[in-house]
Amino acid sequence: MLDCYGITDADIVASALRERPTLRSLSFSPIFHSQEYGILITNHFIHSLVSLKGLTCLELSYWRISDQLLSSIAKENPPLRRLDLAYFTGYSYIGVVSLLSKCQRIQHLVLKRADFLKDRHVALLTSFLGDLVSINLSECSMLTESALFALNEKCPLLNEIVMACANIAYERVGNCVVNPQIKCLRLANNYVLQDTKIIMFASNFPNLQLLDLSSCINISEEGICQVLRRFSKIRHLNLAQCSIMKLRGMNFEVLKLEVLNLSYTRVDDEALYKICIVVMK
Q1: How far apart are CA 192 and CA 171, in angstroms?
Q2: Tens digit of each residue's pLDDT (9 = 90 or more) over 131-184
Q3: What is the Cα–Cα distance from 205 to 179, expressed in whole angstroms?
Q4: Where are the beta strands (DSSP E) in 85-175?
């Protein structure tokens, strides 16, 4: 139930949930994406939600909740595999850790714009995320590459990391371990990300297939070419709004690219000609 104008009362939703105790997946966001107009979480709603003993997927974007709701869910320990708390307000790290410490089978986790999250929080949460396959920590402004490295080292099944609008490369930290499991890395809008860091990522994620560097304005053309020389398996590359013109040094004939996004760049005719020649072959 996404963006439903007619649903304004959480107790109505709670009553509906009571009628379907075997419900396994619930996705619900209010039409008014703001604290002022959002649906108020009531005790009736909390009790109905935790009564869903077989819940494997819970997506409640744009709600204003409390740590009480997350703790109440944790007490029932549902078999959650997917948890999406994007754009939630009103809760804290205490609520997140209480839930994840009990529900340790989560494979897909979205904590988008969890402004309170710090690198040390993510490092602690990794001990509960052994089954994690994908994570979205976009718009968590206090996170740096330290959080990315912790996820990489402590979550053996992880293959997708999304950390757009973070502070990747804001701190200077040591190299992360080589992880052939990581296939997708989305780092859009990391304005402080520089060549040295993405070159290091290329060395540590040898099987990367999707790389999103859109709007990473401090990455140079030379740095991108160096990365592509090392990413032998990359298929999807997003360089939208980057400082790209000539793409000199990029040998398109050895790449396995299927998607190349150069939107809003300054790429010129010469570079496009090189790409077209390879495609036509």
Answers
A1: 10
A2: 999 999 999 999 999 999 999 999 999 999 999 999 887 555 555 688 899 999
A3: 5
A4: 108-110, 134-136, 160-162
How far apart, in whole angstroms, are the C-alpha atoms of residue 27 and residue 4? 12
Q: Please identify which residue in the block is written with the tokens 């060549």.
A: 195
Query: Which sign, positive or negative, has the C-alpha torsion 154, 66, 168, 182?
Result: positive
For residue 212, the cross-strand partners are: 186, 238
Across the chain, the runs of DSSP E, i.e. the strands, are 25-27, 57-59, 82-84, 108-110, 134-136, 160-162, 184-186, 210-212, 236-238, 259-261
CA distances 259 to 123, 212, 276, 279, Å, are: 33, 11, 13, 11
Give the residues across from 59 on adjacent strands. Answer: 27, 84
Task: Give the model confidence (pLDDT) of 264-280 as tens digits.
Answer: 888 888 777 777 766 55
Q: Return d(Cα 151, Cα 122) in angstroms, integer.
A: 8
Q: Can you tell me the distance from the alpha carbon of 224 to that of 32, in angstroms, rounded to the nearest whole number?
A: 40
Tokens of 123: 């490092």
Alpha-carbon span 16 to 33, nearest angstrom: 22
**Would you say 187 and 193 are in contact if contact means Cβ atoms under 8 Å apart?**
yes
Euclidean distance between CA atoms 151 and 175, whole angstroms: 13
Nearest C-alpha neighbor of 55 from the set 38, 33, 72: 72
Between helices 93-102 and 67-76, what is the axis angle to 10°? 10
